[in-house]
Design goal:
Blueprint lengths: L1 H9 L1 H17 L7 H72 L3 E3 L1 H12 L4 E5 L4 H18 L3 E8 L4 H14 L12 H21 L3 E8 L5 E5 L3 E6 L6 E5 L3 H15 L2 E3 L15 H10 L10 H12 L7
Parallel strand pairs: 2-3, 3-4
Antiparallel strand pairs: 1-7, 2-5, 4-8, 5-6, 6-7
Helix pairs in contact: 2-3, 5-7, 6-7, 7-10
Length: about 325
């Protein structure tokens, strides 16, 4: 009974409307009651009143719901605004992280490799490169590996090759003696090639690099090679290819530095090497065509070559000395082997 009373309290308007509807229906099937018109009109008015009551009741129920929805929307809007602010902070934080990562990447601009890795790194640098800039002592490794291998690759692929070399001036006795003295101070015995460093060896190594450059130029027309002769020595050697720059010292067993071409320091070194080359004494390699060289140059051909390019051989050099320069130029020993 209690359950029915509770139900009736919640649905009284609908229940009354249902009773009135049944009553009107009974009247409609012919049941005769006194004052039928008045009863019908009253019933209709009662139904309309109940409908109005139901509408008002539903509206009354909706008002709290709408207010709750509005409050929820306001709360959601505030939450979204707060979330938007947090997203802005997150984006700013991501920007800071990106900048930090870039800064960290640039701090690792230089890689350090062991002496045992230098030959392999230089070999990788030679692969598919279209340029090579060198600054160092006499260019022994240039003659032994870099120049012949890069020229062979460029010839095979039918492309141009840009070469820029800065080595010691073999006609400047003071700088050659200073270099030889420096090399002896590092190791007073023979190096990996089996020879000790002396003034005459330093001069002959530099002469040999000039001869090798002219010899390769005559055999490969797409080789654009330029040589500068320095009158100040450096203890470092720079080898720059299209992919990286490798900085080594005179000791093949020592550690080396590697800078990839994607790093900003690569362009710095490139600009430095070109600027330094511009200040060196230039060798007119293009004049070498006036002194053709055989596949195995003769002493006379080599003497003629140095004459036409304006580089004086030492006055006391015998044919044996010139033959030694030819050997060093075309069959140089790899200092890393």
């Amino acid at each position: 009974m209690t359950r029915f009373a509770t139900w009736l309290g919640k649905n009284a308007d609908a229940f009354i409307a249902l009773v009135l509807a049944v009553t009107v229906a009974v009247l409609g099937v012919g049941v005769t009651l006194p004052h039928e018109d008045e009863i019908t009109n009253s019933a209709i008015l009662a139904v309309v009143g109940l409908l109005a009551t139901s509408v008002l009741r539903d509206r009354g129920r909706r008002l709290p719901v709408e207010a709750e929805v509005r409050d929820t929307l306001r709360s959601s809007t505030a939450t979204l605004e707060e979330l938007s602010g947090k997203l802005t902070h997150i984006e700013a934080f991501e920007g800071v992280l990106s900048d930090t990562k870039r800064a960290l990447d640039e701090t690792t601009v230089v890689r350090v490799i062991s002496g045992a890795q230098v030959a392999q790194v230089l070999q990788e640098a030679r692969r598919d490169t279209d340029r090579w800039f060198f600054k160092g002592g006499t260019g022994t490794y240039i003659r032994a590996k870099t120049l012949p291998e890069t020229v062979a690759a460029a010839r095979r692929e039918r492309r141009t090759l840009l070469f820029r070399l800065e080595i010691l001036d073999p006609t400047h006795l003071e700088v050659c003696e200073a270099y030889a003295r420096h090399r002896r101070s590092v190791s007073d015995g023979p190096d990996a090639t089996g020879e000790p460093w002396t003034l005459e060896r330093t001069r002959k190594e530099a002469y040999a690099t000039i001869l090798a450059a002219c010899w390769h130029k005559q055999r490969f027309g797409m080789l654009d090679i330029d040589i500068g002769l320095a009158r100040t020595m450096t203890t470092l050697r720079y080898d720059l290819s299209a992919s990286r720059v490798v900085v080594t010292r005179d000791d093949p067993r020592g550690e080396a530095l590697v800078v990839d071409s994607t790093k900003f320091y690569y362009s710095w070194v490139s600009a430095e090497l070109l600027t330094s080359l511009d200040q060196a004494r230039r060798v007119p390699v293009e004049q070498a065509r006036l002194a053709p060289l055989d596949d195995e140059p003769t002493v006379e051909e080599v003497r003629k070559l140095f004459e036409v390019i304006g580089i004086d051989l030492a006055s006391g050099y015998t044919d044996r000395d010139v033959i030694e320069i030819i050997r060093k130029a075309l069959r140089a020993k790899d200092p890393y082997e």
